[in-house]
Structures are given as C-alpha cells and as structure tokens.
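From the pipeline queue, job 12 of 40. The input is one protein chain; the requested action is below.

Action: predict structure.
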Amino acid sequence: MKSLHGRRIATVAVGAATVLGVIAPPAQAASWSSSLTGVLPGFESRRWYDSGGTTTIKFTGCSSGSYKVANVLLRKDTAGPDPSYVNASFTKCFDSGTSTSTGTWADHGSGDYYFMVNSGATGISLTVKSLTVSY
C-alpha cells in the first residue's frame, strides 16, 4: 500500500510539472539583421521594441578608410531627450571581412531602442558587411 501511495504522489508531481511547463512559455529573445553602406556620423539604426533584458549588437566586416573604429551608442527612443547608454568602440570588425566586434548593454527596461554610429565624429563613412541586434 505504501508503494502505491508513493507512485500516486510521483504521478501527481510529474503531471503538475508538465502542466506548469505548458503554461509558462520559455523566454525567447528576438533579433534582426542588416548591413550598413557608407553611413555617416550620427547615423541612426531602425527602431525595435524591447520588452526588457540585455541588448547585444554585432558588427562583422567593417571598413571606413583609414579610420579603424566604429563607436556604437545604444539609445532609448523617448518623448523627451533620448537617454544614451555606454558607448562601445568596435575595432576587431576591421581586422577582416569575417571579423566580428560585439557590444552588450544591460537591461534598461522596456521601450523602443536604436543605435547611433560615430556620433560627434566628422567625415567618416562606415560600411558594415553584416550586423545583428539581439534583445
């Protein structure tokens, strides 16, 4: 009798775990990919909605003449002045057409985000073979 009672508890526990797994969907990150061709300082990317969590931006295959850094600034699109977060200096992506630079920003809450490149610089034309934004 004791064995039957133990099996019943185990069956109920497994059933409850299965139901909870179906009810609670797994957290899924979203992303988008693109490229940049000859963008000038202050270029703003497309906007995306982030419900919260970290943001990662990857540039692969960068070129901009003799200038070998792409400064990437994450910004949040707001009604007032848009707050900006840590500026990441991407340099590795200039090593070759397949080299990648990556920046990761902490969670800044839900909202619409975008990034700017080389804000405040002058005369720099940046090309990026591929870029991916994950959030």
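Job complete. Residues 61 and 98 are 5 Å apart (CA to CA).
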